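Tip: read the tokens left to right.
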């Protein structure tokens, strides 16, 4: 193929006129990592005006990342009132909410408009408005923190049923805290595993898990253990779904934050770190906190860094 055809109208394989070609710029960012080539990859389309729903879905399949986001710019006055409209797609579906796409897109918006979004940006997602605040650290590093929706606590799952359904050893599932569905916009069953070795060696098959989850109130499972690789880390996690293993899952981390403060694994308002993606060689650092007032859990916050690694253009 003649790659020069991308820069000029017409190409041997698919000739088009100059007026027919549409260009869409994107930035790829590694989220929940302060350095490139780690964390969770995200493609952010900077201006998705003119793209149809099916084209967004096709582009998400083309990037073949866990998620791809599309910014749909509106008048500044509308964005001040309603937030910046963003849509989130996996390779298979549009999501109402997802964590690393929210944080990654917010960091890109700040980089694109540093004066306008220096302290905060509000994203208008399908799930509602999600604010992301920013803190500048020494050396120019930016820390972003999103406030997710207040958690909804769902079903408590039977250890025996989960072990049988997923082909796990029941001894590998912790007994002192529950397996419970929690949602801050996306419902995850938080599955506590007893040890780091058990989590690393777990025989988790998505198709088998999907059959079990289809009969529950959870969409995915978030596997966690309190045994971690470092003393500053509170949970080690894994999340496996239909597109493989996720290096960092910000939506699930928010659910885990709510779960932790409810069951005494973290104190109310305490910021703790979750590590994910270690076995994949995509190490991610996710910082979470949540508040409790009696039985009520609120103010779930999930934060981290991001590192832009690629810039390009899709020409359709």
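Filled-in amino acids:
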């Amino acid at each position: 193929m003649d790659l020069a055809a991308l820069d000029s109208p017409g190409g041997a394989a698919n000739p088009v006129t100059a007026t027919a070609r549409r260009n869409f710029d994107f930035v790829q960012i590694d989220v929940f990592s302060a350095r490139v080539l780690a964390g969770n990859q995200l493609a952010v389309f900077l201006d998705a005006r003119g793209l149809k729903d099916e084209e967004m879905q096709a582009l998400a399949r083309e990037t073949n990342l866990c998620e791809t986001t599309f910014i749909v710019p509106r008048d500044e006055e509308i964005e001040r009132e309603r937030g910046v409209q963003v849509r989130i797609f996996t390779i298979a579906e549009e999501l109402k909410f997802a964590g690393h796409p929210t944080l990654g897109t917010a960091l890109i918006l700040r980089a694109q408009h540093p004066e306008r979004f220096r302290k905060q940006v509000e994203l208008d997602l399908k799930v509602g408005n999600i604010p992301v605040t920013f803190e500048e650290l020494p050396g120019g590093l930016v820390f972003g923190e999103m406030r997710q929706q207040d958690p909804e606590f769902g079903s408590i799952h039977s250890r025996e049923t989960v072990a049988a359904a997923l082909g796990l050893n029941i001894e590998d599932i912790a007994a002192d805290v529950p397996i419970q569905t929690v949602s801050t916009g996306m419902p995850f069953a938080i599955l506590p595993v007893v040890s780091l070795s058990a989590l690393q060696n777990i025989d988790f098959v998505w198709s088998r898990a999907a059959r079990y989850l289809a009969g529950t109130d959870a969409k995915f499972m978030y596997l966690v253990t309190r045994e971690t690789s470092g003393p500053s880390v509170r949970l080690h996690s894994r999340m496996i779904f239909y597109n493989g293993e996720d290096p960092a899952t910000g939506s699930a981390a928010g659910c885990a934050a709510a779960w932790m403060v409810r069951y005494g694994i973290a104190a109310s308002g305490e910021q703790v770190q979750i590590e994910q993606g270690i076995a994949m060689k995509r190490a991610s650092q996710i910082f979470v906190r949540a508040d409790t007032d009696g039985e009520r859990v609120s103010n779930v916050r999930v934060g981290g860094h991001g590192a832009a690694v690629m810039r390009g253009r899709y020409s359709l």
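The two ends are 16 Å apart (CA to CA). Helices lie at 53-63, 76-82, 99-112, 159-166, 196-200, 206-213, 250-262.
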